[in-house]
Amino acid sequence: MNRKAELKADYKHNGHKLRKMGVYAIRNMANGKVFLDKSSNLESAIERDRLWLARGGHMNAKLQQDWNLHGAAAFTFEILEAIDSTDEPKNVSEEIAVMLEVWLDELQPYGDKGYLPVPRPSR
Fold first, then answer.
1. HSE, side-chain direction, 13 A CA sphere, residue 62
2. C-alpha span between 8 and 60 (Å, rounded)
């Protein structure tokens, strides 16, 4: 096996230990609104959102409007919950999705309290 193939195989087996995975929040300290999201690479996702906001192109238009109005100093970025890495690789996407649902239930970041659309009632 060549070196590139070894590195790739090692990353597939141990990559989950190299990054934090879970749920993060962007809080507007000026009005109390919250944006929640999940990621398999929290630090990267937070930096991506910070960059998009700074450049005026965030995917959430309401969050972007408030960023433009209040400025970067009015916002905090925080990791709410991260999955502990283990020696066993596992599929964490389902676990992260459940984690996000728990935080959505707790913080209710909809309407006046947040930047997410109100969820539709399930049938």
1. 16
2. 34
Q: Which residue has the tokens 């969050």?
A: 63
- Long-range CB pairs of 97-105 (<8 Å, 24+ gap) are 97/38, 99/22, 99/23, 99/38, 100/23, 100/36, 100/37, 100/38, 103/23, 103/25, 103/36, 104/36
Q: What secondary structure letter does DSSP report for 110?
A: B
pLDDT by residue (tens digit) across 62-114? 999 999 999 999 999 999 999 876 655 567 888 999 999 999 999 999 999 99
Structure tokens at 82: 């991260």
Other C-beta atoms within 10 Å of 78: how many? 12
| Contact indicator for 118, 111 with CB cutoff of 8 Å | yes
Q: What is the DSSP letter of 17?
A: G
